Amino acid sequence: MKFKKFNKKFLKSRNFVVCVLVFMLVVVCTVNYQFNKQGMLETSSDLQEYEELLQADNENIDVDKEPVKETANENLKTDEIKVVDSNKNEADEKVKETTANITKEMVSKENMQKETYFIDIKMNREKERGELIEELDAIVKNPASSQSSIEEASNMKLNLVKFREAELNIESLLTAKGFENPVAYVSENNASVVVDREKLNKDDVAKIFDVAYTQTKLPFENIKIMEYKR
Questions:
Q1: What is the pTM of this model?
Q2: What is the CATH number of domain 83-227?
Q3: Domain coordinates of the chain in residue numbers?
Q4: How far apart are CA 21 and CA 13, in angstroms?
Q5: Dihedral of CA 221/105/185/163: which sign?
Q6: What residues contact 177, with CB distance under 8 A and at least 6 apart?
Q7: pLDDT of the chain along its 230 residues, tens only?
């Protein structure tokens, strides 16, 4: 009888302990879950903040890249402008140089002493003009040249054709008027004419002026007439 009572008490106490242990286990699991949940939330929050930080950095990088591109483009445009201006100045200088060289050869006393003066002057004129045309062609074909530079170089080439035509017309008309071996050089603002005469009278000068003016439309003060003095 006593054993049964003891057994019942023991079972009751054992059940109590099991219940307590189960309860404690539930509490521990609950607390652990809450901690894990909190940790996950904090981790998720940190991860979100990290992603936002990366996104902000990427935006800053993109923003920083744009001025670099613009600066590079501005530098490229500046370089192109320099190239174009260089080509333009070079063409202008070449035109002036060509005019100066041909005029110098025409008025040279040393050249006028030569029997081949008229042939030499015409050959030199064509040589200088040919070099000038090559310079202008180089500007037209240069990928770095702007449209305005290309148009200007093309207009210069057209002017050279007109000048050459005017020169041939002057020489042909003067030959028809009785002047032997005339040679003419025409530029944008000036014209020079040399005829195979040691002395020109007023009528001769008037005829030459009339022909030169008709072909060039230049004012008389810009037309120079010279005698071939051996």
A1: 0.61
A2: 1.10.287.4300
A3: 83-227
A4: 12
A5: negative
A6: 207, 211
A7: 544 444 455 445 555 555 656 556 555 555 554 544 454 444 445 545 545 655 655 555 444 444 434 444 444 444 444 444 556 677 788 888 999 999 999 999 899 989 999 999 999 999 999 999 999 999 999 998 888 888 888 999 999 999 999 999 999 999 999 999 999 999 999 999 999 998 999 999 999 999 999 999 999 999 999 998 76
